[in-house]
User: Fold this.
Amino acid sequence: MGFPKHRPRRLRQTETMRRLVRETRLTIDNLIMPLFVRPGKGIKQPIPSMPGNYQMSVDKLVEEAKVLQGLGIPGIILFGIPEKKDEMGSDAYSDEGIIQKAIIAIKKEVKEMLVITDVCMCEYTSHGHCGFIKRDEKRGQFDVDNDMTLELLAKESVSHVQAGADIVAPSDMMDGRVGVIRDALDEKGFEHIPIMAYSAKYASGFYGPFREAAESTPGFGDRSSYQMDPHNAIESLREVALDIEEGADIVMVKPALSYLDIIRMIKDRFSYPIAAYNVSGEFSIVKAAAEKGWIDEKRVALEILTSIKRAGADMILTYWAKDAALWLKNK
Ligand code: PBG
Assistant:
């Protein structure tokens, strides 16, 4: 008979056996919840494109942060919708800015929670671009002024940390930003504050719902001159290497799902913690399909988060953080 004498046994027969040999474990410890803060009082305004997410005034934000801390979620990342936007994005680095107020309030009442801030200009500029815009009169074109933007980003980071931020996360993709931010923080005595760099940030269609949530859709043009081309993989290694050289402590890949190969490549080549951003579009397509009854949201969401972890991410920024904390607790 042609049967092999020994054959591999499938260790899948019972849940107990599956538990024993499971390679990837998704836990609450891996999750970071993004939150949106806006001016006002008593406001918790639903974001239509991202069911279950809200633009909250500072008082409501503090309440929510308390709930998340109670669930055991280790960190939140804050996005601000300022009172008014201008060309210079001045609310981003004002000590009276919306994010600064939010950090101070959270730090007073929700002490265990790690507060991460997104360092970028796009939510604060009237044109919605991630940096300072200069006009090339000769060509009649607009362009982001990289070096001018660096100064503003450094100011923004220092102001977030002075308010109490635990980690700053530059998401703008200007060249040299991590180094400039590192120097500015060190100079103010904030050598202990880590930088989570959005290192491999792709120009992606998956940010659509977020731009509605943060009211940051560019008024003209798009972000492809400063964000990465989705066709490129090797380039992400260069971006990560540069950010680490400049002082990044955690490197990020964004979006996550269409870029699992990038996460794995970086994991195999660098020994730094990796964050992955499970972005708004990745969340909203599942929500929409679940609302139609086409898929089981909990099952699909946990499968997605597990796949991001399996690809090599140490932490995941995800709008499912709160739900997943509940799902994982009751499993
Ligand atoms: C930039 C920033 C963006 C996101 C996080 N930080 C938007 C962008 O690059 O246009 C998107 C996150 C998401 O889609 O969930 N400040």
In short: The longest helix spans residues 146-163.
